[in-house]
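quick one, two chains, predict together pls
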Amino acid sequence: MGKVMTAEQVAATVQSGMTVGVGGWGSRRKPMALVEALVRAPARELTIVSYGGPDVGLLCAAGKVRRVVAPFVTLDSIPLEPHFRRARQAGEIEFTEYDEGMFMFGLLAAAHRLPFLPTRAGLGSDVPRVNPGLRTVRSPYEDGEELLAVPALTLDVALVHLNRADSRGNAQYLGPDPYFDDLFAKAAGRCYVSCERVVDTADLRKEGPVQSLLISRSMVAGVVEAPGGAGFTSCEPDYGRDEAAQRRYVEQAR
Amino acid sequence: MTPQTGTSRADVCVVACAEAFRGDGEILAAGIGGAITVLAARLARLTFEPDLLTSDGVCLLTGDVPALGEAPGVVEGWLPFREHLWLVLNGRRHVMLGAGQIDRYGNTNISCIGDWARPKAQLLGVRGAPGNTRCDPTSYWIPRHSTRTFVPRVDMVSGIGTDRGAYELRRVVTDLAVLDFGTADGSMRLVSVHPGVSVADVVAATGFELGGVSGQVPTTRMPTGEESRVLDRLDPGRLRDGEVAA
């Protein structure tokens, strides 16, 4: 029934070598409380799948990362993420670099239990060159078009941060953009949701319209109440990005 | 010809970027990368291309056209990232991107400098540039035209050029000039130089052979009186001037 747990308990379920998807986008609604717990946990050699922001940076800085799968890593108002940069330039991590749309199709494929989805995004660019495992597929219809076959981005664990959730894992976003948190949940074997506030199920509809109920409890293994759990990243409408804290984060990385 | 009183190089650049959207009709004019591209889309919509869709830079399609940094008074649609990525594949969108490197066929790099396997400088990553350039009309705004940016060969092809299957590269606007790919082999040519800039300046700042540099090269047009008034309303603090060195 109830699935409320602590961030430490979530982090303890992550084992070395796992593939971990992280919701949000850049420096927006990142599950930083869960990421920080993961930094303190013993798991290593992780593959991190993310529209990357300080989540990727912190995990790289902590030496937790074997591979990053991402179309970018950025802090939005500060374009370049310092820890990820350093790790790449030092040759410490492997990198699967995808186009943003390819990345979405990888999550969609995993969420739908498909082996791949075809797309034009990535064709002609150096993305196939730096990902030699990528294959193309030819349309079986009259057009016969050759398309990039994006493999499913299947996750062992997904970590997301939303505005509200009930104790059973129904999770709600109240800001302007759901990002891809529902896809991360559906692409994962286990999804853990942190939220600003755990509320009664009956109160979810008082918080926002039915369309804001982004993630169903059937997709959720655990719920963590973490006020301020997006750290300095934005979590609208509860709070915006803490630009001063983000600047300090960048300065301390130097 | 030098800019008339009150008209800056940035004003000329905004108008040249706005011109990229001419004829686009009822599609999203997406400006990525600061004041100039955002102003260009809004200026085009408020003057010669009224059916354009423009956004607040986050996820709202605005029903009116607010000044930089102002919230829209009217919202006409919702464009979260998932819809944006759908729109990229659908193609009803013209985006003005930036580039750390660009070659003579318009291949661009925002990913990293040096060998990809262990870069000298990690930049953003390819972001949406591969899909943008394969599926949508694309233009570029490059605020500092130099041989560091205009290179013979880019280190990591993020946005694809005319020789790699780009859907349509409309134009490249820099702080010095307007360029396009309207040559027989799809390589870059000079379309116009901004007031006060010589063809030799552009050639010296370009690290590859440029078409269209012989003969009479036109001067990029100045803003009209109406365009200047619209720009002053959209950007009263002249943030646009901070984006152009000259």
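Chain B has six helices and twelve strands.
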